[in-house]
Amino acid sequence: MTNEYREFSLHTRNEDIKNIENKTFDVAIIGGGITGSGIANILSENSISAVLIEKNDFASGTSSGSSKLIHGGLRYLSGGHIMLVRELIKERNYLLKNLDIVRKIKFDILTGKGQWNRREIQFGLFLYSLLENKFKIPEFFKNDYIKNPQIDGYFTYEDAMTDDSTMVIYNIASAYNNGGSCFNYLELLNFKEGNGHSVLTCFDKINKRSTSIKAKLIINCSGPWANQVNRILRLQENAEMRLSKGIHVIFKRDYFNLKHALVFRSSIDKRQLFLIPRDHTWILGTTDKFVDNPGDFSINNDDTEYLINSAKNIFPFINKEDVIASYAGIRPLIGKGDDPGKISRDFKIIDYGNVITVFGGKLTDYRAAARKVLKIMKNKLKVDVKIRNMPYINYSRPDKDQLEFIISHECPVYVNDLLRRRIPVLIYDPENAENFKKENMDKLSGLIGD
After folding, report:
1. What is the Cβ-side half-sphere exposure of residue 11, based on CA atoms within 13 angstroms?
2. SS3 of 247-304
3. Is omega for the bond preceding 391 within 30 degrees of 0, making it cis?
4. How far apart are CA 115 and CA 150, in angstroms?
5. According to the 3-state scheme, what is the secondary structure of the chain?
6. What residues contact residue 31 under an 8 Å CB cut-off, 6+ apart?
7. Contact call for residues 259 and 145 (beta carbons, < 8 A)
8. C-beta separation of 51 from 183 below 8 A
9. Per-residue pLDDT tens for 238-247?
10. Cut 0.90: pTM above it
11. Closest Cα partner for 243 from 297, 162, 284?
12. Predicted pLDDT of residue 195
């Protein structure tokens, strides 16, 4: 199957970008994260001509800074968001069934002093099972492996995990192979109305030149930058969006001796935290702090110490000096409130006429967002569309020679694009990242950077 894929590389990018000025697209998508890539995919499956532009690399914003979970949102039940959880479970199950990059993962959720009440968790997990169309009384296990007398036990449940940036890339590659046009490092600069279409002036960061894109409709899927993009598009009305930064810190895999991933409450403020095994590492996260700048991926000492001190009650040996890497992401939250943890994680779609903006959203329910956008668009474009079970990913990597294949079919431009978002050794095996670069120097020579 992989032999049928079109080449999608730095070379084809430079060739494709020469041709876009002579074409009027049905749709221009701004933003190459999970929402934009899912919409590009569903449009390509419906033979709607679309171009996606992303000012940096695909998945370089929120969609590579998550906890890497595909989950039903167990904690959202406490806020009464039952329909959201039901939708998330449905999407999680679909992705588990249909994608080789999504797999099950078991979590132990702790009870005891400073943690959750046993009956509260048991009821929540029971309701969770009912929303999965199961009838399962959760079993309580006495604490048998965490050396802390305040932890009296735990419940075990299943969700799923993936690599968020890979999920984006798979959708981008699917859209491209279906005939879509997808460009990273192409930044929107200006906008004007044309004759029956809009004209977007963009800057190609690779070739250092401007280009124009003509499209009948525009979809703004730029995540934390959505309001900024709307201002470029001269839209006065914007959603009340708050930005919350979440950081994760990474430890060696042998640092914790745990049976499963762990869900526990911070000893500082009772926030829910995860400790997740992945490849050669454990990922601890995440913070939830309001910020003003959508590009603020900095990780300060206070953020790191918060995570370390939050876990010290359970793991007294944990030490900031043992952190081997870290990363951050920005959540676009729609709603009011002083506590980012209590603002809805659901997405919101606003129809401005020839511009549709998607605010918020989650990795797990990106397909639901794509379907809802398509329902709005079909009337504007006056086309018949297929929506049920869409979008479908018809792309996968081969078992052998993956590095060469990824360079040729997933359009990394810089070496760091590959090391962080295609084969993310900088996250899952950071101590061997330099060795990986040295061992594959010849294969990486076609990319930009060292």
Report:
1. 6
2. EEEEEEHHHCCCCCEEEEECCCCCCEEEEEEECCEEEEECCCEEECCCCCCCCCHHHH
3. yes
4. 9
5. CHHHCCCCCHHHHHHHCCCHHHCEEEEEEECCCHHHHHHHHHHHHCCCCEEEECCCCCCCCHHHCCCCEECCCHHHHHHCCHHHHHHHHHHHHHHHHHCCCCEEEEEEEEEECCCECHHHHHHHHHHHHHHCCCCCCCCEEECCCCCCCCEEEEEEEEEEECCHHHHHHHHHHHHHHCCCEEECCEEEEEEEECCCCEEEEEEECCCCEEEEEEEEEEEECCHHHHHHHHHHCCCCCCCCEEEEEEEEEEEEHHHCCCCCEEEEECCCCCCEEEEEEECCEEEEECCCEEECCCCCCCCCHHHHHHHHHHHCCCCCCCCHHHCCEEEEEEEEEECCCCCHHHCCCCEEEEECCCEEEEEECCCCCHHHHHHHHHHHHHHHHCCCCCCCCCCCCCCCCCCCCHHHHHHHHCCCCEHHHHHHHHCCHHHHCHHHHHHHHHHCHHHHCCCECC
6. 52, 54, 220, 221, 222, 223, 225, 226, 229
7. yes
8. yes
9. 778 899 999 9
10. yes
11. 297
12. 86
Low-confidence residues in the chain, pLDDT < 50? 1-2
Q: In whole angstroms, what is the distance from residue 286 CA to residue 271 CA?
A: 9
Query: Of how many residues is the chain composed?
Result: 450
Give 353's contacts (C-beta < 8 A, 6+ positions apart): none
Task: Tell me the pairing of strands 103-112 and 24-30.
Answer: unpaired
Residues 143-195 pLDDT 10s: 988 888 899 999 999 999 999 999 999 999 999 999 999 999 999 999 999 88
